[in-house]
Design a protein that fits this description.
With 561 residues, chain A is mainly alpha-helical. Chain A is built from 24 helices and two strands. In chain A, helix 10 runs antiparallel to helix 13, helix 13 packs across helix 18 and helix 15 packs across helix 16. Classes of the chains: A mainly alpha (561), B alpha+beta (362), C alpha+beta (355). Chains A and C meet through helix 9 and helix 10 of A and helix 2 and helix 4 of C.
């Protein structure tokens, strides 16, 4: 048995390593090679020269400014709301909690589009309202600014902190706070000295995730920044690659920026793991009572109104604007019944080739990427979590890689690897987008499948072995049925986001291979605002329906399992 | 005849040696318990017998045929060893009903549908789970899940059944109930059981024979529960099997004196010679009375525990525990208070070399 | 005058009455245990005393000071009650050192720094934690963590100490040791204890008085010995240690066991009780030989015998019902399958409860 099992184990391990090498490691390696390897020799001086070019330097600084501002803002907003819904007697807490998680679903670049319609200096509805009806001389807020970009990013990213802190506060043993209370501390002191310090690791970990996301974020800056000359790393990479049609200098700039992004991402992830491992207090234990609730008393109603206003302003208003604009005959007309119709929606769904293609491309690409990544993820996770073979260390390292490679880096790496230089030319085809999607979403699949596999205790498999089942029978009868929910979750975790993907697609699309995200973005760039909004509206409907279905599926799985 | 025989077994992980030259024989039809503190390597031994781990050297035979023998390049996989096994965490498959869980070994063995059904239902009834065949494990309590695991291990009628601390996760009442049931099943079905546990009470209750393993994986003593409890070979075994008093005794001019005082131990003198002695006895081996012959003592702690009175008494600086059943204490005027004087006599006493105590304390 | 007074304390959660009209007086320096199965209302009662739960009805006082009274709409928050409290799950703060954990209640009270230092060191010394003062509580074992929790509760030198199953998370060996430590601390500091537990041996060992509770209703309040010697009802009897109940009834003016075997005079209740249980404890049954035991003996057959070390555990079939007998390991006893005579040393009779 040992000899035969050893052989198959080696094959599976080799296959897993090969997938990760081809899909993720090679593109990243090529980026570093391209950045540091000039004319056949290692050259750091040239990298520094590129970084010191004013445009590049400014993009780096911008990324840092926007990411810092967004992180600080989101952390404050996320922690505050998390505390409000878990530790106070705010009314309708469950509803609020659900609403605060909605931004997770909404693509931020569609949000950015909506805010552009609302707050662009001249044409924004809100600015116009103030200027025309209230006698303001100029716009009250210019969304094409650092503040505007950060504001929009905070609106869509704060759930990262919110969900982590909520989880920590809900799981926290209430007697930790009660024992402070019986010691004589009031609720304010307890919050300051006990509660916040205990959930600090969760706050920091969520904050670092936001930092990572915001640094590598393309959509919001592309929609709101480029107009005013504000570039960050991903948008500058896009702009260089796009404008210069692949000139050597622009690709160098792109790879240097991408390399910096990878290093920064790795650093952030390393910091996060440090924070989580050192500061991870064991604060979950004991019989659970309802945790103490701070009585808000006089502040209860004002805070309720504040929360409802926040939800209305950041979730309802932008969504409504997208749908309304999508229904307008021409952008700029007022929202009256005679100006609104469903014609645009019909047109883009049934008559307009660009958008029809885009929807078809996104659905097929998303589906294929989800299926492939789901199966590859199961296999790789199985090796990492369950198998005891030599050489697993390499795979564990490679398995970390997808988590720290941002979308624009993957796109650039894929261009380097699959543009014919190494024998295969996929450039300008849908295949290159597919390869990039697989690389981009591998992390999701690995996470979902490892989590599912970790639930399958070794003794479940061993029990099958002593019942007379061979290794393969045990895999088929026990392991596969038990990880199936994880696989389904992985499928949806990939399929739904890929429907709205922009960062990767925008770098790789050709005229016939637009995706939904690319189509929304380019239509908007071309001034087809109403079409862009209508397509965004359809994307929102697709995403919300999909999310609802997956949530229902997960709930029934939990009940059944 | 021995159903399991282990000779010269070596097993290590890296530099850590778990077992060195271990020998063990288990007879057909007996309930044998491997008892030891946690981390002593008893579970490793069980997994070696099951075939989940390979020995570095030595030989394991099951039913007279070698199953593990690195020297002879023999290594029979777990699925071909013909054993049943029950795990500490139950390991019932959450996606299968009770019926499917129990039927699985028969399905693998390609037993025909009608016979399969009959045998599953019979086994399910045997563990007292009839009527629950269509439930999923998530709809069962911990004790019921462990019954399913037991039925699954029994259904193929293995000649050898391995149990790895199967009762640890159950609450005290259920644990007591289940241990009697396991014993019942073993007798009724006439199978050999190898039971691994760190709980000496379970080991005493269910074993025909048992082996005590120390923290280094060495077997200290093998014997019946009575032999292990009443005739321990060393202080380690003695103290592992229950509450133990070890009282320092010094030898002066042919007398054996307790603690720092001048009262001789009212018991036979030790046969072996040592620099210092320890008198070992259990709380029930020490009898106390208001007056009469015996060691003069003072009650330093009196504790009412319901059915038992638990006393700590002191004889010339040496402290020892004893207990009296409450109804007896009331009837015989043995309800002492702290500070009361009393006399103490032995009903049983073992002599140990004080040197060997240090090792037992570790 | 009682130190801590609960007057007609009632707690309802929606339709469920968790605690119903509880009246307790606890003396200064007394150790008072609340014993019962989970869900009996003992923890809810403790949390009402602590101030974590409001009362639905009734009042709680310490001395003359009112703590809670829904009628007067008065509720002193937990942080103002000056109690010490120890929880089952330790609840020590992992982000503070052992020293800071213990000093916390003193810092909250804005004591002088030398006073804080002195009292913290005192509390640490009493719990054998001086050596670990600068460690993180996470580096301590379960017993160590529970000592930190005790020291923290001691620091303010409270009059009342509330202990909520403080030993349940510890392993059995440590449980006994900590039990002695708690008792020693009480002797040294003189506080009153309200102790919540489901472990009867723990309650017996620690308490001056025990309250046995079931479904929010008091079953018995008495000293441990009295609770053991004369349980007020079948529930208390079954909750305090191992128990045998033989179903019996009054038939044609004669008490008989279920199945028809007549009860001897000594085992018959003194009045017609209808259906009733004959209760006994496994340790309070002797094996007697033919002709002995007189009117207190029952005939049976041994169905199981297990050597458990200190004790030998028997199961005896008496007229179709199982009786458990436990004897010391020295006492000679019959073997499996043999007929035997049981003498019940202390029989109890409980009428079958309605419903």
């Amino acid at each position: 048995m040992k000899r035969r099992g050893f052989g198959t184990a080696q094959v599976i391990l080799f296959l897993s390593i090969a997938i990760l090498v081809v899909v993720v490691a090679v593109p990243v390696l090529l980026i570093f090679l391209n950045a540091f390897w000039v004319n056949g020799s290692f050259n750091v001086a040239d990298v520094i020269r590129i970084i010191r070019e004013p445009d590049t330097w400014q993009a780096l600084v911008n990324s840092l400014i926007i990411a810092s501002g967004t992180t600080i803002g989101s952390t404050i907003v996320g922690t505050f709301f998390a505390w409000l819904v878990t530790r106070t007697d705010l009314p309708f807490k469950r509803f609020m909690k659900g609403m605060f998680l909605v931004p997770f679903m909404l693509p931020s670049f569609i949000g950015a589009l909506a805010w552009k319609m609302l707050l662009s200096p001249r044409a924004g509805f809100i600015n116009r309202f103030f200027m025309q009806n209230l006698g303001f001389d100029g716009p009250i807020f210019n969304i094409y600014s650092y503040a505007g970009i950060m504001m929009v990013e905070v609106m869509y990213l704060f759930p990262f902190v919110f969900i982590q802190v909520c989880g920590a506060l809900e799981r926290m043993d209430p007697t930790l706070e009660e024992s402070a209370r019986i010691s004589g501390a009031g609720l304010f002191t307890i919050t300051r000295k006990i509660t916040i310090p205990l959930v600090l690791p969760s706050i920091l970990s969520g904050a670092l995730l936001i930092m990572l996301y915001s640094m590598a974020h393309f959509g919001t800056v592309a929609v709101l920044g480029i107009e005013n000359g504000i570039f960050n790393i991903p948008t500058l990479i896009y702009q260089r690659i796009h404008q210069s049609a692949g000139s050597f200098a622009s690709i160098r700039t792109g790879t240097v920026l991408a390399a910096i992004l990878v290093v920064a991402a790795a650093l952030i992830l390393w910091l996060q793991s440090k924070v989580l491992s050192r500061g991870h207090y064991q604060i979950i234990a004991g019989k659970s009572f309802r945790p103490m609730e701070l009585k808000l008393r006089a502040l209860r109603m004002p805070l309720l109104i504040f929360c409802l206003a926040y939800i209305g302003f950041t979730i309802v208003l932008p969504t409504v604007v997208i749908f309304l604009v999508g229904g307008l005959k021409t952008y700029g007309l007022p929202f009256t019944w005679e100006n609104l119709s469903l014609d645009n929606y019909k047109f883009i769904l049934f008559d307009y080739k660009v958008t029809k293609d885009a929807i078809w491309n996104s659905v097929t690409l998303g589906f294929s990427a989800a299926v492939i990544t789901m199966f590859a993820g199961v296999m790789i996770s199985y090796v990492i979590v369950k198998m005891k073979v030599r050489g697993k260390g390499i795979l564990e390292f490679l398995g970390m890689l997808p988590f720290s490679v941002p979308g624009s880096v993957i796109a650039l790496g894929v261009i380097l690897a699959w543009s014919g230089k190494y024998g295969v030319n996929l450039y300008n085809t849908v295949w290159i987008i597919l390869v990039a999607y697989i690389a981009r979403y591998m992390a999701f699949s690995l996470r979902a499948n490892s989590a599912a596999l970790e639930q399958v205790h070794d003794s479940l498999v061993e029990a099958a072995r002593v019942c007379g089942a061979t290794m393969w029978q045990a895999l088929k009868d026990i392991v596969l049925p038990l990880v199936r929910p994880g696989m389904v979750a992985a499928f949806f975790l990939i399929f739904l986001p890929s429907l709205r993907e922009l960062t990767v697609s925008i770098m790789l699309y050709a005229p016939t291979t637009r995706t939904i995200g690319v189509a929304i973005y380019t239509l908007n760039e071309d001034g087809e605002t109403v079409m862009s909004a209508a397509l965004a509206g359809i994307a929102l409907i697709l995403i919300i329906v999909g999310e609802t279905l997956i949530n229902r599926f997960i709930k029934t799985e939990r009940r059944g399992g | 005849m021995d159903i399991v025989s282990i000779e010269g077994l070596d097993k290590g992980y890296g530099a850590h040696r778990v077992h060195r030259g271990l020998d063990l024989a288990i007879r057909r039809g007996e309930c044998f318990t491997l008892l030891g503190p946690s981390g002593c390597g008893k579970t490793v031994l069980l997994r070696l017998i099951a075939g989940f781990e390979q020995p570095d050297a030595g030989r394991i035979d099951i039913g007279g045929a070698p199953v593990s023998d690195p020297a002879g390049n023999v290594n029979v996989p777990p699925d071909s060893r013909g054993i049943g096994m029950v795990f500490q965490d139950y390991a019932v498959w959450p996606h299968m009903t009770v019926f499917d869980n129990v039927a699985y070994p028969l399905k693998i063995a390609r037993v025909g549908a009608s016979e399969l059904r009959a045998r599953v239902l019979e086994t399910v009834a045997l563990v007292g789970m009839e009527g629950l065949e269509r439930r999923l494990p998530s709809e069962l309590s911990g004790g019921q899940q462990q019954r399913v695991a037991l039925a699954r291990a029994l259904v193929a009628r293995p000649s050898l059944m391995l149990l790895d601390e199967p009762l640890t996760n159950l609450d005290a009442n259920l644990r007591e109930e289940m241990r009697f049931e396991i014993k019942e099943l073993q007798r009724k079905l006439d199978i050999t059981v190898l039971y691994v546990t760190h709980d000496q009470e379970i080991a005493l209750a269910i074993s025909d024979r048992m082996a005590i393993m120390d923290g280094e994986g060495k077997i200290r003593q093998t014997g019946t529960p009575w032999e292990i409890f009443e005739q321990p070979v060393d202080p380690f075994v003695f103290s592992f099997m229950g509450i133990a008093n070890f009282v320092p005794v010094r030898s002066e001019g042919g007398e054996y004196l307790v603690g720092e005082g001048n009262q001789p131990v009212p018991w036979e003198k030790p046969v072996v010679t040592a620099a210092r002695y320890a008198a070992g006895f259990r709380p029930s081996d020490l009898e106390i009375a208001r007056s009469g012959d015996g060691l003069q003592a003072v009650v330093v702690r009196a504790n009412f525990l319901g059915a038992m009175m638990d006393y700590l008494i002191e004889v010339d600086g040496a402290r020892m525990r004893t207990s009296v059943e409450t109804h007896e204490a009331i009837a015989k005027d043995l309800m002492f208070r702290e500070g009361d004087r009393c006399v103490a006599r032995f009903r049983s006493l073992l002599w140990f070399d004080a040197e060997t105590l240090k090792e037992a304390a570790q | 005058m009682a130190h801590l007074r609960l007057v007609n304390v009632t707690k309802r959660f929606g339709d469920v009455t968790a605690v119903n009209g509880l009246n307790i007086d606890i003396e200064k320096g007394e150790c008072f245990s609340m014993l019962g199965p989970s869900g009996c209302g003992k923890t809810t009662t403790l949390r009402m005393v602590a101030g974590f739960e409001d009362l639905s009805d009734g009042e709680i006082y310490t001395g003359d000071r009112l703590l809670s009274s829904p009628k007067k709409n008065y509720y002193l928050p937990p942080e103002k009650r000056d109690f010490g409290m120890v929880f089952q799950a330790f609840a020590v703060w992992p982000h503070m050192s052992v020293y800071e954990n213990v000093a916390f209640p003193l810092r909250i009270r804005h004591l002088g720094s030398s006073e804080i230092e002195k009292r913290t060191r005192d509390a640490l010394a009493s719990t054998n934690l001086l050596g670990a003062a600068n460690d993180s509580p996470d580096s301590l074992s379960g017993g160590g963590k529970q000592r930190v929790a005790l020291a923290r509760a001691l620091a303010i030198n409270p009059d009342v100490m509330l202990l909520d199953e403080p030993l349940s998370s510890l392993d059995p060996h440590l449980r006994e040791e900590m039990r002695f430590e708690i008792k020693d601390l009480q002797r040294k500091y003189g506080f009153s204890i309200i102790y919540v537990t489901h472990d009867q041996a723990e309650a017996m060992a620690l308490s001056d008085r025990i309250l046995v509770m079931k479904l929010g209703v008091v079953q018995q309040i008495d000293t441990p010995l009295a609770v053991y010697n004369s349980p007020a009802n079948k529930f208390v009897f079954s909750f305090i240690g191992l128990s045998n109940f033989l179903d019996a009834e009054w038939r044609d003016g004669v008490p008989v066991l279920r199945g028809g075997m007549p009860l001897p005079d000594g085992l018959a209740p003194d009045r017609n009780m209808g259906s009733f249980s004959l209760a006994s404890r496994p340790s309070e049954i002797d094996f007697v030989s033919e002709g002995e035991g007189g009117s207190y003996a029952l005939e049976g057959v041994v169905t199981r015998k297990a050597f458990l070390g200190e004790i030998i555990d028997y199961q005896v079939n008496v007229g179709g019902q199982e009786v458990r007998v436990q004897k010391g390991r020295r006492a000679p006893g019959p073997d499996v399958g043999s007929a035997c005579r049981l003498r019940l040393l202390r029989p109890f009779w409980y009428a079958e409860e309605e419903g």
